[in-house]
Amino acid sequence: MQAKESGSFDVVVMGGGIIGSAIAYFLLKESPGLSVAVVEPDSSYEFASALRASGGCRVQFTCPENIEMSKFSIDFIKNFDNTMGTAKHSAHVSWVEGGYLFIVPPEDVKNLERNAKIQQAHGCIAELLTPAELKQRFPSMQVNDLGAGVHTPHDGWCDPNGLLWGFRRKAVELGAVYISGRVQSAQVDTIKAQSITLDNGQVLQAEAFVNATGAWSEGTAALFGMHLPISPMRRFEHYFTAGSPVEHLPYVKDTARLAFRSEGNGFSGGLVDGSEQRGFNFDIDHDYFERVVWPAVAHRFPAFEAAKCHRTWSGLYEVNELDGNPVIGSWTGGLPNLYTAAGFSGHGMMHAPAAGRAIAELVVHGRYQTLDLERMGYQRVASNTPYAEAGIL
After folding, report:
1. What's the average model confidence in pLDDT over 18-37?
2. How many Cα atoms within 13 Å fall on the side-chain side of residue 224?
């Protein structure tokens, strides 16, 4: 149905970034008659987490939900250019099937082997490589202190900006209304959320509300009386070049959270500091690359002894402090018409298509139709029962 009156919708999605826009798109694909509003405070997306990310997509997880979300999302992104264009805009996301490579020291080989078997059981191509095989495939790599690696050749990366705007433009073409504003308060009764008020005074009523405000989702949830243990955490991304030639590299990740990949004539990546103080901090530490990243990347690839960092930028992870996995679903035990898709802890762009489809199925049908994500629901937060991912390095 269409909006019954100004400010009244079937669904209001709070947050118009990549997750919120994917939700709006899938809602209207699942039920074309819905009236959907998306509330976004900044249409320039200056501080949007996805646009400050590296765009990586991988199946190297151990939770079945994460693997299956990645499989769906990667296929969706691979076909994005062909399926998500609008009458006025193409939908280029520049997908690169560059692969992912996880490398571990000898003491972590058994864990890596277990992870690879889980991924293979889900139909993924995951190649377990010995140090000698790693050296043969990637000659520039120093492998003397490694125990093994797993290469997933069909993983890759894309342009997050293209993905976000592709979802947003397609959602608008299908009927979504984007409203500029920030959620300031929520009006609820004992059994459901009734409306929200924006900072410009506008009141929006809806049958369902979705919290997709990313790093800001804890504060959004609190407006409804909901506790959500999600914190913003600053991380840095760098573009750098090597001092001598290096072969084209997949997305390389290790147990110290070094993560980088080839990007044009150079490389893009960084090293996440999980102990970083939580908060909305976008300041750039211009010494971070030389102090933290350069020693790690030069140790693994000696060609980077003379690396040059050309640019550093900061962004936010929306860290689920409970277990690092996203919270996806309705507020069980609270307001059942309040849905959450947040806390992706660095995997939001990667899983946006799958999360968008999942929330749309819940809102429209009341249950999951394709991939069961019940274990990603809020009940584990309420019961303080972590559902952790063992495959994240």
Report:
1. 98
2. 29
